Protein backbone atom coordinates (compact mmCIF):
# COMPACT_ATOMS: atom_id res chain seq x y z
CA UNK A 1 0.00 0.00 0.00
CA UNK A 2 1.45 3.35 -1.08
CA UNK A 3 1.47 6.09 1.49
CA UNK A 4 0.30 9.54 0.48
CA UNK A 5 3.29 11.70 -0.42
CA UNK A 6 4.14 14.59 1.90
CA UNK A 7 2.09 17.70 1.22
CA UNK A 8 2.37 21.31 2.40
CA UNK A 9 -1.44 21.69 2.53
CA UNK A 10 -1.91 21.10 6.26
CA UNK A 11 1.17 23.18 7.05
CA UNK A 12 -0.23 26.12 5.11
CA UNK A 13 -3.73 25.73 6.56
CA UNK A 14 -2.33 26.03 10.07
CA UNK A 15 0.29 28.65 9.25
CA UNK A 16 -2.17 30.95 7.51
CA UNK A 17 -5.02 30.21 9.90
CA UNK A 18 -4.76 33.71 11.36
CA UNK A 19 -6.42 35.14 8.24
CA UNK A 20 -9.92 33.64 8.62
CA UNK A 21 -9.60 34.09 12.38
CA UNK A 22 -8.90 37.80 11.99
CA UNK A 23 -11.73 38.21 9.50
CA UNK A 24 -14.16 36.86 12.08
CA UNK A 25 -12.69 38.90 14.94
CA UNK A 26 -12.88 42.06 12.84
CA UNK A 27 -16.52 41.31 12.00
CA UNK A 28 -17.32 41.06 15.71
CA UNK A 29 -15.44 44.29 16.46
CA UNK A 30 -17.24 46.12 13.61
CA UNK A 31 -20.67 44.79 14.70
CA UNK A 32 -21.40 43.22 11.30
CA UNK A 33 -23.65 40.57 12.82
CA UNK A 34 -25.47 43.00 15.09
CA UNK A 35 -26.23 45.30 12.16
CA UNK A 36 -27.49 42.48 9.95
CA UNK A 37 -29.63 41.14 12.78
CA UNK A 38 -31.36 44.51 12.78
CA UNK A 39 -31.92 44.44 9.01
CA UNK A 40 -30.37 42.52 6.08
CA UNK A 41 -28.68 44.77 3.53
CA UNK A 42 -26.87 44.97 0.23
CA UNK A 43 -23.14 45.64 0.09
CA UNK A 44 -23.34 49.42 -0.31
CA UNK A 45 -25.92 49.91 2.42
CA UNK A 46 -24.12 47.62 4.85
CA UNK A 47 -20.80 49.34 4.13
CA UNK A 48 -22.32 52.73 4.89
CA UNK A 49 -24.05 51.51 8.06
CA UNK A 50 -20.75 50.13 9.35
CA UNK A 51 -18.69 53.14 8.24
CA UNK A 52 -16.27 51.10 6.12
CA UNK A 53 -14.07 52.27 3.23
CA UNK A 54 -15.27 51.15 -0.22
CA UNK A 55 -11.95 49.51 -1.10
CA UNK A 56 -12.22 46.35 1.02
CA UNK A 57 -15.84 46.19 2.16
CA UNK A 58 -17.30 43.90 -0.50
CA UNK A 59 -14.39 41.46 -0.31
CA UNK A 60 -14.76 41.44 3.46
CA UNK A 61 -18.48 40.64 3.31
CA UNK A 62 -17.95 37.92 0.71
CA UNK A 63 -15.13 36.42 2.77
CA UNK A 64 -17.64 36.07 5.61
CA UNK A 65 -20.03 34.39 3.14
CA UNK A 66 -17.33 31.95 2.03
CA UNK A 67 -16.48 31.18 5.69
CA UNK A 68 -20.15 30.42 6.37
CA UNK A 69 -20.87 33.29 8.76
CA UNK A 70 -23.03 35.28 6.32
CA UNK A 71 -25.55 34.29 3.65
CA UNK A 72 -25.99 36.25 0.42
CA UNK A 73 -29.04 36.00 -1.83
CA UNK A 74 -29.60 38.31 -4.80
CA UNK A 75 -26.99 40.67 -3.43
CA UNK A 76 -28.53 40.95 0.06
CA UNK A 77 -26.48 39.84 3.06
CA UNK A 78 -27.92 38.29 6.19
CA UNK A 79 -26.50 36.35 9.12
CA UNK A 80 -26.08 32.59 8.96
CA UNK A 81 -28.11 30.91 11.75
CA UNK A 82 -25.22 30.27 14.17
CA UNK A 83 -23.80 33.76 13.71
CA UNK A 84 -27.24 35.25 14.24
CA UNK A 85 -27.72 33.22 17.42
CA UNK A 86 -24.35 33.93 19.04
CA UNK A 87 -22.70 36.98 17.46
CA UNK A 88 -25.50 39.56 17.65
CA UNK A 89 -24.47 41.85 20.48
CA UNK A 90 -28.14 42.64 21.24
CA UNK A 91 -28.94 39.03 22.14
CA UNK A 92 -28.21 37.58 25.63
CA UNK A 93 -26.53 34.61 23.91
CA UNK A 94 -23.73 36.93 22.72
CA UNK A 95 -22.08 36.31 26.08
CA UNK A 96 -21.55 32.63 25.21
CA UNK A 97 -19.40 33.23 22.10
CA UNK A 98 -19.24 36.84 21.03
CA UNK A 99 -17.83 38.09 24.31
CA UNK A 100 -14.94 35.63 24.12
CA UNK A 101 -14.19 36.57 20.51
CA UNK A 102 -14.33 40.22 21.53
CA UNK A 103 -11.63 39.61 24.14
CA UNK A 104 -9.63 37.54 21.65
CA UNK A 105 -9.58 40.47 19.24
CA UNK A 106 -8.93 43.10 21.91
CA UNK A 107 -6.26 41.23 23.87
CA UNK A 108 -5.28 37.66 23.05
CA UNK A 109 -4.50 38.18 19.37
CA UNK A 110 -1.82 40.70 20.28
CA UNK A 111 -0.37 38.46 22.97
CA UNK A 112 -0.07 35.54 20.56
CA UNK A 113 1.66 37.77 18.04
CA UNK A 114 4.56 37.78 20.51
CA UNK A 115 4.54 34.03 21.25
CA UNK A 116 8.13 33.57 20.04
CA UNK A 117 9.25 36.31 22.43
CA UNK A 118 7.36 34.67 25.29
CA UNK A 119 9.06 31.36 24.50
CA UNK A 120 12.48 33.01 24.44
CA UNK A 121 12.03 34.95 27.68
CA UNK A 122 9.33 33.13 29.69
CA UNK A 123 7.62 36.50 30.20
CA UNK A 124 3.99 37.40 29.61
CA UNK A 125 3.18 39.58 26.62
CA UNK A 126 0.01 41.18 28.01
CA UNK A 127 -0.80 44.84 28.55
CA UNK A 128 1.59 46.56 30.98
CA UNK A 129 3.81 43.46 30.81
CA UNK A 130 6.87 45.54 31.62
CA UNK A 131 5.44 46.69 34.96
CA UNK A 132 5.87 44.92 38.28
CA UNK A 133 2.18 44.50 39.14
CA UNK A 134 0.30 41.37 38.10
CA UNK A 135 -1.66 41.10 34.87
CA UNK A 136 -4.88 41.00 36.91
CA UNK A 137 -4.02 44.27 38.63
CA UNK A 138 -3.41 45.87 35.24
CA UNK A 139 -6.60 44.51 33.74
CA UNK A 140 -8.77 45.22 36.79
CA UNK A 141 -7.67 48.86 36.84
CA UNK A 142 -10.06 49.60 33.95
CA UNK A 143 -13.79 49.06 34.55
CA UNK A 144 -14.66 48.37 30.89
CA UNK A 145 -11.80 45.91 30.58
CA UNK A 146 -13.05 44.18 33.73
CA UNK A 147 -16.57 43.85 32.30
CA UNK A 148 -15.30 42.41 29.02
CA UNK A 149 -12.96 39.99 30.76
CA UNK A 150 -15.56 38.69 33.21
CA UNK A 151 -18.22 38.20 30.53
CA UNK A 152 -15.69 36.50 28.26
CA UNK A 153 -15.02 34.00 31.06
CA UNK A 154 -18.69 33.08 30.87
CA UNK A 155 -18.28 32.58 27.13
CA UNK A 156 -15.30 30.24 27.43
CA UNK A 157 -16.80 28.34 30.38
CA UNK A 158 -20.54 28.10 29.79
CA UNK A 159 -20.73 24.74 28.01
CA UNK A 160 -18.59 23.05 30.68
CA UNK A 161 -20.56 24.79 33.45
CA UNK A 162 -23.80 23.31 32.14
CA UNK A 163 -22.24 19.84 32.07
CA UNK A 164 -20.97 20.14 35.66
CA UNK A 165 -24.40 21.31 36.83
CA UNK A 166 -25.94 18.27 35.14
CA UNK A 167 -23.42 15.51 35.90
CA UNK A 168 -22.05 16.01 39.40
CA UNK A 169 -24.18 14.35 42.18
CA UNK A 170 -25.41 17.65 43.62
CA UNK A 171 -28.31 15.92 45.39
CA UNK A 172 -25.76 14.82 48.03
CA UNK A 173 -24.76 18.42 48.80
CA UNK A 174 -26.49 21.61 49.88
CA UNK A 175 -24.06 24.44 49.13
CA UNK A 176 -21.31 25.43 46.72
CA UNK A 177 -18.67 28.16 46.75
CA UNK A 178 -17.23 29.05 43.36
CA UNK A 179 -13.71 30.37 43.99
CA UNK A 180 -12.50 32.84 41.37
CA UNK A 181 -16.08 33.13 40.18
CA UNK A 182 -15.73 35.94 37.56
CA UNK A 183 -19.28 36.66 36.32
CA UNK A 184 -20.57 33.67 38.27
CA UNK A 185 -21.84 31.43 35.47
CA UNK A 186 -20.64 28.16 37.04
CA UNK A 187 -22.53 28.82 40.27
CA UNK A 188 -25.51 30.13 38.29
CA UNK A 189 -25.78 26.95 36.20
CA UNK A 190 -25.41 24.73 39.28
CA UNK A 191 -28.20 26.52 41.13
CA UNK A 192 -30.49 26.69 38.09
CA UNK A 193 -30.22 22.92 37.68
CA UNK A 194 -30.42 22.16 41.41
CA UNK A 195 -33.14 24.20 43.18
CA UNK A 196 -32.18 22.86 46.63
CA UNK A 197 -28.68 24.39 46.42
CA UNK A 198 -27.38 27.68 47.77
CA UNK A 199 -24.18 29.29 46.59
CA UNK A 200 -21.43 31.84 47.05
CA UNK A 201 -19.18 33.37 44.42
CA UNK A 202 -15.79 34.58 45.67
CA UNK A 203 -13.62 36.96 43.68
CA UNK A 204 -11.82 40.26 44.01
CA UNK A 205 -14.09 43.20 44.95
CA UNK A 206 -14.02 44.67 41.45
CA UNK A 207 -16.06 41.69 40.17
CA UNK A 208 -19.02 42.31 42.50
CA UNK A 209 -21.14 44.55 40.27
CA UNK A 210 -20.88 42.37 37.17
CA UNK A 211 -21.51 39.21 39.23
CA UNK A 212 -24.59 40.57 40.98
CA UNK A 213 -26.11 41.85 37.74
CA UNK A 214 -25.70 38.45 36.08
CA UNK A 215 -27.11 36.62 39.10
CA UNK A 216 -30.11 38.95 39.12
CA UNK A 217 -30.69 38.37 35.38
CA UNK A 218 -30.96 34.67 36.16
CA UNK A 219 -33.35 35.18 39.11
CA UNK A 220 -30.95 33.80 41.72
CA UNK A 221 -30.27 36.78 43.98
CA UNK A 222 -32.02 35.05 46.89
CA UNK A 223 -29.81 31.94 46.66
CA UNK A 224 -26.47 33.13 45.28
CA UNK A 225 -24.37 35.82 46.96
CA UNK A 226 -21.02 37.47 46.27
CA UNK A 227 -18.13 37.47 48.73
CA UNK A 228 -15.11 39.69 48.10
CA UNK A 229 -11.78 38.12 48.88
CA UNK A 230 -8.42 36.71 47.83
CA UNK A 231 -8.51 32.91 47.88
CA UNK A 232 -4.79 32.76 48.64
CA UNK A 233 -5.00 34.63 51.96
CA UNK A 234 -8.60 35.12 53.11
CA UNK A 235 -10.77 32.56 54.88
CA UNK A 236 -12.69 30.51 52.34
CA UNK A 237 -16.48 30.78 52.73
CA UNK A 238 -18.13 27.70 54.27
CA UNK A 239 -19.60 25.30 51.71
CA UNK A 240 -20.03 21.60 50.99
CA UNK A 241 -18.32 21.89 47.58
CA UNK A 242 -15.61 24.21 46.30
CA UNK A 243 -15.22 24.80 42.58
CA UNK A 244 -12.24 26.19 40.67
CA UNK A 245 -13.39 26.82 37.11
CA UNK A 246 -10.60 27.78 34.70
CA UNK A 247 -8.60 28.92 37.72
CA UNK A 248 -5.71 26.55 38.45
CA UNK A 249 -4.11 27.10 35.05
CA UNK A 250 -3.46 30.73 36.02
CA UNK A 251 -0.85 29.83 38.64
CA UNK A 252 2.46 28.04 39.13
CA UNK A 253 2.76 24.62 40.74
CA UNK A 254 3.14 25.81 44.33
CA UNK A 255 0.10 28.06 44.13
CA UNK A 256 -1.97 25.28 42.58
CA UNK A 257 -1.01 23.05 45.51
CA UNK A 258 -1.69 25.84 48.00
CA UNK A 259 -5.23 26.36 46.71
CA UNK A 260 -5.98 22.65 46.99
CA UNK A 261 -4.54 22.50 50.52
CA UNK A 262 -6.63 25.49 51.56
CA UNK A 263 -9.75 23.92 50.05
CA UNK A 264 -9.11 20.65 51.88
CA UNK A 265 -8.65 22.36 55.23
CA UNK A 266 -11.86 24.39 54.88
CA UNK A 267 -14.16 21.63 53.57
CA UNK A 268 -16.24 19.46 55.93
CA UNK A 269 -15.70 15.70 55.97
CA UNK A 270 -17.31 14.28 52.84
CA UNK A 271 -17.00 17.63 51.09
CA UNK A 272 -15.76 17.88 47.51
CA UNK A 273 -13.54 20.06 45.35
CA UNK A 274 -14.06 20.34 41.59
CA UNK A 275 -11.30 21.72 39.38
CA UNK A 276 -11.86 22.06 35.66
CA UNK A 277 -9.83 23.46 32.81
CA UNK A 278 -8.92 22.61 29.24
CA UNK A 279 -6.89 19.84 30.84
CA UNK A 280 -3.96 18.42 28.89
CA UNK A 281 -4.35 14.69 28.18
CA UNK A 282 -2.06 12.51 30.29
CA UNK A 283 -0.03 11.49 27.21
CA UNK A 284 0.37 15.18 26.28
CA UNK A 285 -0.26 14.45 22.60
CA UNK A 286 -3.99 14.62 21.81
CA UNK A 287 -5.82 17.54 23.46
CA UNK A 288 -4.59 20.38 21.27
CA UNK A 289 -6.92 22.79 23.09
CA UNK A 290 -5.32 22.00 26.43
CA UNK A 291 -1.80 22.47 25.11
CA UNK A 292 -2.70 25.71 23.35
CA UNK A 293 -4.27 26.94 26.58
CA UNK A 294 -0.96 26.42 28.33
CA UNK A 295 0.73 28.58 25.69
CA UNK A 296 -2.04 31.12 26.18
CA UNK A 297 -1.18 31.23 29.88
CA UNK A 298 2.46 31.76 28.91
CA UNK A 299 1.58 34.86 26.89
CA UNK A 300 -1.11 36.24 29.24
CA UNK A 301 0.12 35.60 32.80
CA UNK A 302 3.28 35.81 34.87
CA UNK A 303 3.34 32.16 35.93
CA UNK A 304 0.32 30.30 34.59
CA UNK A 305 0.75 26.83 33.12
CA UNK A 306 -1.76 24.13 32.26
CA UNK A 307 -1.69 20.58 33.63
CA UNK A 308 -2.87 17.02 33.13
CA UNK A 309 -5.59 15.22 35.05
CA UNK A 310 -2.93 12.93 36.52
CA UNK A 311 -1.06 15.98 37.80
CA UNK A 312 -4.15 17.39 39.48
CA UNK A 313 -5.16 14.10 41.05
CA UNK A 314 -1.67 13.79 42.55
CA UNK A 315 -1.88 17.31 44.01
CA UNK A 316 -5.28 16.48 45.47
CA UNK A 317 -3.94 13.35 47.15
CA UNK A 318 -1.00 15.36 48.52
CA UNK A 319 -3.51 17.86 49.96
CA UNK A 320 -5.35 15.04 51.75
CA UNK A 321 -8.25 14.17 49.44
CA UNK A 322 -8.83 10.43 49.74
CA UNK A 323 -10.83 9.85 46.56
CA UNK A 324 -10.15 11.47 43.19
CA UNK A 325 -11.45 11.04 39.67
CA UNK A 326 -11.29 12.78 36.30
CA UNK A 327 -14.12 13.12 33.79
CA UNK A 328 -14.25 14.70 30.34
CA UNK A 329 -16.90 17.43 30.07
CA UNK A 330 -17.08 18.95 26.60
CA UNK A 331 -14.63 20.15 23.97
CA UNK A 332 -11.17 20.40 25.56
CA UNK A 333 -12.52 20.69 29.12
CA UNK A 334 -12.38 18.02 31.83
CA UNK A 335 -13.09 18.15 35.54
CA UNK A 336 -11.12 16.56 38.36
CA UNK A 337 -13.02 15.81 41.55
CA UNK A 338 -11.56 15.26 45.00
CA UNK A 339 -13.52 14.01 48.04
CA UNK A 340 -12.40 14.73 51.60
Automatic annotation (TrEMBL):
Keyword terms, alphabetized: Methyltransferase, S-adenosyl-L-methionine, Transferase
Pfam name, any one: Methyltransf_2
InterPro entries associated with the record: COMT-like, COMT_C, COMT_dimerisation, SAM-dependent_MTases_sf, WH-like_DNA-bd_sf, WH_DNA-bd_sf
Lineage, broadest ranks: Bacteria, Bacillati, Actinomycetota, Actinomycetes, Kitasatosporales
Listed GO biological process terms: methylation
Gene3D superfamilies: Vaccinia Virus protein VP39, Winged helix-like DNA-binding domain superfamily/Winged helix DNA-binding domain
The protein, known as: Methyltransferase
Domain of life the protein comes from: Bacteria
Any one GO molecular-function label of the UniProt entry: methyltransferase activity
Residue ranges occupied by any O-methyltransferase C-terminal domain in the UniProt entry: 112-321
Species whose genome carries this gene: Streptomyces boetiae
Domain (O-methyltransferase dimerisation): residue spans on this chain: 17-88
